[in-house]
Design a protein that fits this description.
The complex is a heterodimer of chains A (349) and B (535). Chain A has 349 residues and is an all-alpha fold. Helices cover 73% and strands 0% of the residues of chain A. Chain A is built from 14 helices and no strands. In chain B, a hairpin with a 2-residue loop joins β4 and β5. In chain B, α4 packs across α5, α5 runs parallel beside α6 and α6 packs across α18. Chain B is globular. Chain B starts with a strand and ends in a 12-residue tail after the last helix. The chains are: A mainly alpha (349), B alpha/beta (535). At the A-B interface, α1, α10 and α11 of A face α2, α3, α4 and α5 of B.
Chain lengths: 349, 535
């Protein structure tokens, strides 16, 4: 190979060129027709899933024994009240007509009116979403920021004390119930140190910083158990990859163990990690009910809980549909990220 | 000056000695072959030279490259040396490349790591390297990903990475074992040219003695971590002093003692008949509503196999021989034609009980084709599930014992688990599993390809014995021409889903007619005539 001379005068250009960050380097632009087909197929599967989910939700409530109106009103209801509610709910009409009305209504943002609260369900859900969605994103960001470095650190030091410490901590993180952890957070940071309020939500009108401040303790309580799981997934995915032949090839090229891990291991290990992140987001959005209870937050989880207790089927139906939509949407996004990470997936559907 | 000097190198992992007093040397421009069976320590010798060993290893002895003591270097200094002074090519090209990085990036990485080149310069250099190893720019731009290349093409990329810095020493660990014969011949030619052009020293590690005899200037024969014999290729082939070397060469050239072919009346009904078999696989649609296109894996194949006959089927990977095998076993539906076993057609819904009894199969991988949680008795009686009059109780035990004795194992082995057996023993168990229904036809799908030469010779002997003892018919599917030549009476050559040539095995190998058969036979390395030692 001809010796390659370095021009001294042009060092900064050289350094820029040589150590340009990975994402700015010239790569083959992803094959657009292939990517387009992948996107179209995913989108199609998203729409089909949504429609099928809406059937399931609607008809499960239909087949449930008894009449929704009498169920909602309880056992002591008068027949004429039940009849009034039936016509109010539109139960006199055929099933298919009602399904079409319900579904097209939802598409236009009309989720019906809550029987208990006498307010539009869309309004109620939107109010709650403004708490639950930021909380889920906040918690997921925290959990990812903690878990990925911890998992990578543990994998790089497999079997050494650092690995054992991280794995011990994650074991604890998985085992400790999050409501107990939430109470400990309140005890230490709200009651003793007085850094945060013990509960409640100030609302976004108080400014984004104040709002985020009041979501911090719940977000931490939600994030830690998720971070523990994610760190373990990250570690094991990375360890699997580190046993692959191409890591040995990278080492034979002259890369150190650490360089091989960062340059060749990480991106390959991301697929299982992305899958878990997707699942966790769906869980955080709807499953935060206990934490919402502990911190007295007006979130979606509490809304569902209250709606179920009050037998408000319209709210339950709408919120469940919304959550299904969120889960399917997140999976769709995760699928798209897969294709960005792994070129082998781009041609498939 | 000697390029690489290894003297009395010993390696142990934990308390287990792996290499014992290994000594060898390589001069610039010289090709040294290390050969031996699995477990002989050949690959670990290579990894020791690169010092890419697992933790908890103990090394002693002397190891130097261009006079520099490698054992005295720090890990950081070794990183500078790997890929720069020593290049390495591994066995499995399918997994040796990072699947999410383009081939250009992977070749450039070696250059950027060891030189002060800018990315633009490295890109130009990577381009010229890929051109050099036979991947031209118009068909193989730097932006290609590994999954878009075939095994041979990927191995070329790995070679380009290994020679990027013109290393003084190139180590190739079984570089062609996973490849077809014609690809193998091309890769070996490429390696030989590179050694000559760049004056590199090369260590080629292979279990294939024909490759060794063809490529190497010097040979080192290893067994159980020790060097048993070493010498120049010509001299070693001529003398073969050590008994192990003699055994290896004898096993490589082994001719099983097949009983003479049964002469059948050509008018009689064949045991297996394939008539115009067609198997199509749908390809992904190009557009949403475009008609689906098909890939024809088996294209109007017809042949007949008579009772007592041993029929070979050869061809390179992707030629459709495995698909055809699966179709014969009733595991693949056909899109055209039919398959008859003893006169009765195979239906699309799988085999009947009687067809199952008559036909059994032995697969390639003795490690992956058994359920590890079942004992041998249960494993080898599995074919009874599909048979109508399966024996039970004592009868069944007797059949198990009979099958195990037939393949040279003990009846007591029925009570053991599969992990307690070696590769060769497992393949015997696989044969016992095929024998248990007293079949008339056994399909061998690359059944000896994963075995060491001496074990392979024993299994081939066993097959010959079983053939005369039970009057079996064999359909022998393999890419290994030597094995097919020694085991079959008649042979079919398959290319791109079609049978391009068929005939008596000996005639076909000594006077091939079709150009594809000719290229296959020409590409397969052949052991020199050992009686004279002429290479």
């Amino acid at each position: 190979m001809p010796p390659i001379q370095l021009e001294i005068g042009n060092f900064s250009a050289f350094a820029r060129d040589r150590w340009r960050p990975l994402w700015t380097r010239a790569r083959r632009p992803p094959n657009l027709p292939l990517m387009g087909r992948y996107f179209a197929k995913r989108l199609l599967s998203l729409i089909v899933s949504l429609v099928v989910a809406s059937w399931v939700i609607f008809f499960v409530i239909e087949i449930a024994p008894g009449d929704p109106a009498s169920f909602m009103l309880g056992i002591n209801a008068q027949p004429d009240t039940i009849a009034a509610l039936r016509s109010e709910l539109g139960l006199d009409e055929g099933k298919v007509t009602r399904y079409i009305n319900w579904f097209t209504g939802m598409l236009q943002g009309d989720f019906g009116t809550s029987y208990t609260y006498r307010t539009p369900v869309a309004q109620m859900v939107a109010d709650r979403l403004w708490v639950s969605l930021p909380l889920a994103i906040y918690a997921l960001t925290l959990s990812t920021l903690i878990a990925l470095p911890a998992g990578i650190y543990a994998a790089a030091r497999r079997g050494k004390s650092g690995d054992i410490a991280v794995m011990g901590a994650t074991q604890l993180g998985v085992a400790v119930p999050n409501f107990w952890f939430a109470m400990m957070l309140v005890l230490v940071f709200a009651i003793n140190l007085r850094w945060f309020s013990a509960g409640g939500f100030v609302g976004w009108e108080a400014g984004p910083l104040a709002a985020l401040h009041s979501l911090t303790l719940p977000a931490i309580a939600l994030a830690l158990p998720q971070a523990a799981i994610l760190a373990r997934v990250m570690r094991s995915a990375l360890l699997d990859i580190l046993g692959e032949d191409f890591i040995r090839t990278a080492r034979a090229k002259g890369l150190s163990q650490r360089q091989a891990l960062w340059r060749h291991g990480l991106r390959n290990a991301l697929i299982p990690v992305l899958t878990i992140i997707g699942l966790q987001f769906s869980f955080l959005l709807a499953g935060a009910i206990i934490i919402e209870q502990v911190f007295y937050l007006p979130g979606l989880g509490r809304l569902v809980f209250q709606a179920i207790s009050a037998r408000d089927l319209i709210v339950v139906e709408s919120v469940v549909m919304l959550l299904v939509f969120a889960v399917i949407m997140v999976n769709f996004l995760v699928d798209l990220t897969y294709a960005l990470v792994d070129p082998r997936l781009r041609g498939r559907g | 000056m000697t390029l690489l000097d290894v003297t009395n190198l010993s390696l142990s992992i934990g308390a287990f000695p792996i290499l014992r007093d290994v000594s060898l040397s390589v001069d610039p421009g010289e090709i040294l072959a290390i050969t031996g069976e699995s477990g002989s320590g050949k690959s670990l010798t290579a990894l020791t030279i690169l010092r890419l060993l697992p933790n908890c290893t103990r090394l002693s002895g002397h190891l130097s490259l261009e006079g520099q003591d490698l054992l005295a270097l720090s890990e950081e200094q070794m990183c500078d040396l790997r890929g720069h002074k020593i290049g390495m090519v591994f066995q499995e090209p399918m997994t040796a490349l990072n699947p999410v990085q383009s081939i250009g990036d992977q070749v450039m990485e070696t250059i950027l790591l060891h030189s002060s080149a800018t990315r633009t310069e490295a890109e130009a250099e990577a381009r010229s390297l890929l051109d050099r190893v036979g991947l031209p720019a118009d068909r193989f731009p730097l932006s290609r990903y590994p999954h878009e290349l075939s095994g041979g093409q990927r191995q070329r990329v790995v070679i380009a990475m290994a020679i990027a810095m013109r290393p003084a020493l190139l180590i190739a660990d079984e570089p062609t074992t996973a490849l077809d014969v014609t690809t193998q011949a091309q890769i070996l030619d490429l390696l030989r040219d590179l050694v000559r052009d760049y004056g590199m020293g090369m260590i080629i590690i292979t279990h294939d003695l024909a490759v060794v005899a063809d490529m190497a200037d010097h040979i080192v024969v290893m067994r159980k971590g020790e060097v048993v014999e070493t010498g120049s290729t010509k001299q070693l082939l001529a003398t073969r002093r050590h008994p192990y070397t003699q055994k290896l060469f004898a096993a490589s050239n082994h001719q099983a003692d097949l009983p003479p072919p049964v002469t059948t009346d050509p008018q009689s009904a064949p045991l297996l008949e394939v008539r115009n078999a067609v198997r199509d696989y749908p390809l992904p649609r190009k557009r949403l509503f475009a008609p689906a296109e098909h890939m024809r894996a088996v294209d109007h194949v017809s042949f007949a196999l008579h009772r007592g006959e041993r029929l070979g089927l050869v061809g390179e990977s992707g030629c459709g021989k495995s698909t055809l095998t699966r179709a014969i076993l009733g595991l693949e539906p056909l899109q055209g034609g039919e398959i008859l076993l003893d006169g009765s057609p195979l239906s699309g819904k799988g085999l009947t009980a009687e067809q199952r009894r008559k036909m059994q199969v032995v697969f390639q991988d003795p490690f992956g084709s058994f359920n590890p949680r079942h004992k041998v008795a249960r494993l080898i009686t599995e074919p009874f599930h599909g048979v109508s009059d399966a024996p039970t109780g004592q009868d069944r035990d007797n059949r198990v014992a009979e099958a195990l004795i037939a393949v040279g194992l003990n009846p007591e082995d029925a009570d053991r688990y599969i992990h307690q057996f070696s590769g060769g023993q497992r393949q015997r168990i696989a044969i016992a599993r095929a024998l248990i229904t007293r079949p008339e036809l056994i399909l061998f799908d690359e059944a000896v390809s994963a075995l060491d030469v001496s074990v392979r010779a024993q299994i081939l002997d066993l097959l010959a014995e079983l053939c005369s003892a039970y009057g079996l018919s064999y359909l022998f599917i393999s890419h290994d021409l030597h094995v097919v030549r020694s085991m079959t009476d008649r042979c079919l050559v398959m290319q791109k889903g079609q049978i391009v040539e068929h005939g008596q095995t000996e005639d076909l190998f000594s006077a091939p007619q079709h150009p594809y058969t000719k290229s296959l036979i020409a590409a397969a390395p052949v052991l020199p005539d050992l009686a004279t030692g002429a290479a």
